[in-house]
Structure formats: C-alpha cells, structure tokens
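Repro:
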Amino acid sequence: MQKEALNGRELEASVLTRAGLMLKQVQENWLAPDRDERLLEAIKFNQKVWSFFQAELSDPDNPLPKNLRQDILNLSLFVDKRLFEVMANPDNEKLNIVIDINFNIAAGLRMKPE
C-alpha cells in the first residue's frame, strides 16, 4: 500500500515538474517565432494537471486532511486565474509564480514521509 502511494506521489511530482518545465522553456524562449503555440500547449497541459488535482481534492473520500485539501484547491484556483491572465495578456514574468508553485509542490511530493 505504501509503495503504491509513493509511486502515485512520484507520478504527481513528475507531472508537475513537466508542467513547470514546459512553462519555463516558453519563458526562456519568449521571442521564439512559435512562442504562442508553445505557450498555449504549456498552459493547456498545466490546466489539465491542476484540473486533475481539483477533481481528486474535491472527492469526499480523499484521504488528505480537509484543511490541506482546501489550501491546495485555493492554490489551484490561483493557478487557473494566473494562466487565464497570461492567455489574455501574454507576459513572461507572469509565469514565474506558476512555475515556482509547480516545482515547489513537486519537491514536497518527493519528500519521504516520516
């Protein structure tokens, strides 16, 4: 059971890292001719990742403590809002916070529970 949970956490961490890297690559190549296409792809991927978390955290049978679930849901709403802002008014600086959130949550998921 614990091994399966760790694999799930590692998978979640890996997906969040990929989402962050996709945004980071667009940010680092902001003047590339295919930026808009790559930005949209990265945003869509991030939205899918965070939508999955929203669905999982909204499940009443989710084993996480209610306060933690609510905090992560609130964070996911912030991420959604920021991604919509970037779509409406592209600005590479606006990506920083979403990239940081993705990488920090991924790092937390990789930590071994005590």
